[in-house]
Amino acid sequence: MEKSFKNLVKSDYPYLCGSKLLLAVSGGVDSVVLAHLCHTAKLDFAIAHCNFNLRGDESDGDEKFVVDLADFLEVEVYTESFDTLQYAENNGLSVQMAARELRYEWFSELSNSAQFDYTLTAHHANDNLETFLINLIRGTGPEGLTGIKKDSNKVIRPLLEFKRSEIEDFARKKNYKWREDSSNSSDKYMRNKIRHNIVPVLEEINPHFLDSFAKTQQHLQESLDLVEDYISLLYPKLVQKVTYGYAIDIGFLKKVPNQKQVLYQLLKSFGFTEWNDVYNLLDAQTGKMVLSDSHRLIKDRNKLLLTEHQENSVGKEYSLEREEDLVMIPELGTFHFNETDKLGAASKSCIYVPEHKLKFPLVIRKWKKGDYFYPFGMNGRKKLSDFFKDEKFSLPEKEHVWILCSDNEIVWIINHRADNRFAVEENDGRILKICIS
Amino acid sequence: MEKSFKNLVKSDYPYLCGSKLLLAVSGGVDSVVLAHLCHTAKLDFAIAHCNFNLRGDESDGDEKFVVDLADFLEVEVYTESFDTLQYAENNGLSVQMAARELRYEWFSELSNSAQFDYTLTAHHANDNLETFLINLIRGTGPEGLTGIKKDSNKVIRPLLEFKRSEIEDFARKKNYKWREDSSNSSDKYMRNKIRHNIVPVLEEINPHFLDSFAKTQQHLQESLDLVEDYISLLYPKLVQKVTYGYAIDIGFLKKVPNQKQVLYQLLKSFGFTEWNDVYNLLDAQTGKMVLSDSHRLIKDRNKLLLTEHQENSVGKEYSLEREEDLVMIPELGTFHFNETDKLGAASKSCIYVPEHKLKFPLVIRKWKKGDYFYPFGMNGRKKLSDFFKDEKFSLPEKEHVWILCSDNEIVWIINHRADNRFAVEENDGRILKICIS
């Protein structure tokens, strides 16, 4: 196994040589073997061990074991102690998920602060098979059937093609010491059922099962790669970057076969769960929307708009004193107030207002239902909602509208339209130029 | 179950009503239940039963049982007796594969001759799961993971969403009689292992496993549908119909991501097994090829040519007597010999030859190594192999070349070039126009 590990590093992971590696070591046989293999292969690595404090003295024993191993191998060791149960409770997670999150978060911090190039974990072929079967049993998308990645986000799993039995045989042959995990979590319970009751039957029927399974997964991954290629090909025709997110062209989507599945592929990483509602949006009225934890998908005429959830700033107000030349509004940008004598060309981001018509303090706030104004260049008054409708504002665009008010009268729909009441007339005297950037 | 079957027919298979159906009935509980359900739903069906003669008296008992069932349901019954073992031996098949081939072949014949619209089989959710697991255990492409199709090639499987236990419970509740299959074939052995040792553990871990499995398979199928869409999109740019098959444009293929996988998708139904050899063809020398049982893939400059295996007609000869006006050559077409006085324009499919220069009988044969001729319009002689090289013939094109000879001299490379020695000169007298169509 030493030899095949060295060959593997040479052929598949040549970049590990000369890199600074962080090895995740629990103390179990897999990670202990990986540590020894890295040592023999003369890789430059340190060891990281998480103490999840889930098994009292045993957890502390694991930690001590790993520290001693690092000492023996003469490599640096990092340990961290977590209150996993508390974290799980606080975040509504299972203990397994909590441990997973804590582990990867800490590894990531450690990698950054101590400048490791890669993190190595000791996942092997049986872990991969068990994960496949767990996903299969629970129900999964195609991604859940393709297994643990050999290499993703700077986490490398160089033992992924070795079987548990090979690793254990090797450890015994070498007289390595390791720690047995006595935990009996529900995830572990499922893994044990799979490990002891299912996998042996699969291997009894086909003694080369793990090898053929690797090929099966590879074929599946290759097919899914083509799905990615297809979506990449459609993407520029289907999706357009717009001010507050992305717009999906429904007209184009409807010309593509299997439109629902294409939509699923486009949106799968945005946390939506109610897929039938998503599909129904295609034929829904403008304004209908479907929410995920992080995003909204909004029907807007012949588009689906994908935007992040907007922090609700309705009711928020900023007050502007005359004295200030420059005011920062976090949601909007910077206001500049300049006195001027000559009237320049107005634009979406600049207006000219006679100073004497403004009553300070001015107020900057989100628009609200019932607001109306007198559009610049027109005599009549108009509801803001009607203005938005005429201008074909999408919902996210409407939500991002702020207004500048003077004594409860709208001076400016910021970035969109000035109010006629505040237009500069003859003999208006000093003029204020208000710009946003 | 009667009600849900009726609803299912209404919603998913409305075309079954009013169609003429052929029901495959083995005598086992699944097909017996399907027969009763079709009867209750007043569908228009006949029963077909294959006697594979694999279990002696038991097989005959099954046949009698099915005939009696048809009698009881007052529907027509077709039975056929097969020497399955002999067929398996003759065709180098496993007994299961032999039975499968014989069954589908006979159903197909029966459907055609007795004009059935659809064939119905009683495959259910557990069959589907078992097939998935068998494929998984043996190793499979992604298609092998998506399961038995509800509807393919006019074969419908309306019980596919019902579980074995539901079907058996229903049969017992209704007091139906059926036959138990005592066979113990290797396929059955594997199925039994899966049925009794694996599936119960899966269902113990997740009591709703079969439902979530159906969704998992559906998601996978949807992804594979996108792969098909992608390949369809690339197809017109990648593949061109040529005279003896199809040409794949290597230049275009190399611009596409995951080119090997795209090539696999294009070629997967042509029986190739040595995929690395196929992929290596992309950078191989012109003339290299990879064979499947039915096809050849040949590197030809910047193309891969896919052709069916050519029946080898090297050595085959046809002899032409002068007297015949019209000669059929199966591999080539029809020869027409016409005496003429005036010289017309020669073409690829017609030549003009002075009658006195020909020595009968003429011979039509495949070209062979060492053949040479005097290209029309030139004085020198040329090897046919050089001629083909200059004309950039692909291997299949070369293989399809026949020549017309007179006294061992080449008169015509049929469909390509005449020989200068047989060109019409002044005072040549009677001219023969030889055409092929």
From TrEMBL, chains A, B:
<dbReference type="InterPro" id="IPR012094">
    <property type="entry name" value="tRNA_Ile_lys_synt"/>
</dbReference>
<keyword id="KW-0819">tRNA processing</keyword>
<dbReference type="GO" id="GO:0006400">
    <property type="term" value="P:tRNA modification"/>
</dbReference>
<dbReference type="GO" id="GO:0005737">
    <property type="term" value="C:cytoplasm"/>
</dbReference>
<feature type="binding site">
    <location>
        <begin position="26"/>
        <end position="31"/>
    </location>
    <ligand>
        <name>ATP</name>
    </ligand>
</feature>
<dbReference type="InterPro" id="IPR012795">
    <property type="entry name" value="tRNA_Ile_lys_synt_N"/>
</dbReference>
<comment type="function">
    <text>Ligates lysine onto the cytidine present at position 34 of the AUA codon-specific tRNA(Ile) that contains the anticodon CAU, in an ATP-dependent manner. Cytidine is converted to lysidine, thus changing the amino acid specificity of the tRNA from methionine to isoleucine.</text>
</comment>
<keyword id="KW-0547">Nucleotide-binding</keyword>
<dbReference type="GO" id="GO:0005524">
    <property type="term" value="F:ATP binding"/>
</dbReference>
<protein>
    <recommendedName>
        <fullName>tRNA(Ile)-lysidine synthase</fullName>
        <ecNumber>6.3.4.19</ecNumber>
    </recommendedName>
</protein>
<dbReference type="Pfam" id="PF11734">
    <property type="entry name" value="TilS_C"/>
</dbReference>
<feature type="domain" description="Lysidine-tRNA(Ile) synthetase C-terminal">
    <location>
        <begin position="362"/>
        <end position="434"/>
    </location>
</feature>
<comment type="similarity">
    <text>Belongs to the tRNA(Ile)-lysidine synthase family.</text>
</comment>
<keyword id="KW-0963">Cytoplasm</keyword>
<dbReference type="InterPro" id="IPR014729">
    <property type="entry name" value="Rossmann-like_a/b/a_fold"/>
</dbReference>
<dbReference type="GO" id="GO:0032267">
    <property type="term" value="F:tRNA(Ile)-lysidine synthase activity"/>
</dbReference>
<keyword id="KW-0067">ATP-binding</keyword>
<dbReference type="InterPro" id="IPR012796">
    <property type="entry name" value="Lysidine-tRNA-synth_C"/>
</dbReference>
<keyword id="KW-0436">Ligase</keyword>
<dbReference type="InterPro" id="IPR011063">
    <property type="entry name" value="TilS/TtcA_N"/>
</dbReference>
<dbReference type="Pfam" id="PF01171">
    <property type="entry name" value="ATP_bind_3"/>
</dbReference>
